Structures are given as C-alpha cells and as structure tokens.
Amino acid sequence: MDDRFPAIAEQLLLIEGELRQQGWWDEASPNAEALSSVEPFSVDTLDFHQWLQWIFLVRMKQILEQDLPLPNASGILEMAEMAYADQSQKSLGLRTALKKFDQLITDAR
C-alpha cells in the first residue's frame, strides 16, 4: 500500500464534504451516456461538480480499495479554478481540498 493512501482518503472525504456543503452533490446519477464521455473532465456532458462526484471520487475510491497505483500527476485544481471562476468565495473550501489532493499526488514524483 502506498504511504499516501490514508491522507488521500481523508482528502477525498473533505472533497465530498465540500460538494455536499455547497449544494453541489447530486442524489441521482447522470445517465450512462453522460458518464461515458471521453473528453477531459467530461466537459461535454457533466458539470465539474458532477465529474468530481461521479467520476473522480468513484475512481479514486476504487484505486484505494483495490491498492492500485496512484496517478503520476494531478491538475484538478486548475480545472476547478476555471469552473468556479465566478464563484471564487463559495468554492474556496473545495479548491483548497483539491489543491491538497494535487499536492499529495505530485509530492511523490
């Protein structure tokens, strides 16, 4: 197991908490077509918060549960800054949690 797994698991919980707190957590999953986008961050079919909830968090939890290799790089904060450019104050907590996630991933390089 990668030594970063516990810290990453904690960050994933913080990210989920921020999504919930801001009202960006959906109870119903997007349709299969929306989830199968091949575009980065599924920008053509999902809002960024939906991508975080239904793609990113799900995939990262699978990686941790199955002891798979972590990604070599992460640039999620950059996308969050673009997605929430007009909501900088409201998204501050989420962007802070995503920044820490990016740091955890890149610190091992």
TrEMBL record:
Which Pfam families does the entry link to?
A: DUF446 (PF04287)
Under InterPro entries, the record lists:
UCP006257 (IPR007384), YqcC-like_dom (IPR023376), YqcC-like_sf (IPR036814)
What name does UniProt use for this protein?
Answer: Pseudouridine synthase
Q: Which residue ranges does the record assign to the YqcC-like domain?
A: 8-104
GO BP terms: single-species biofilm formation
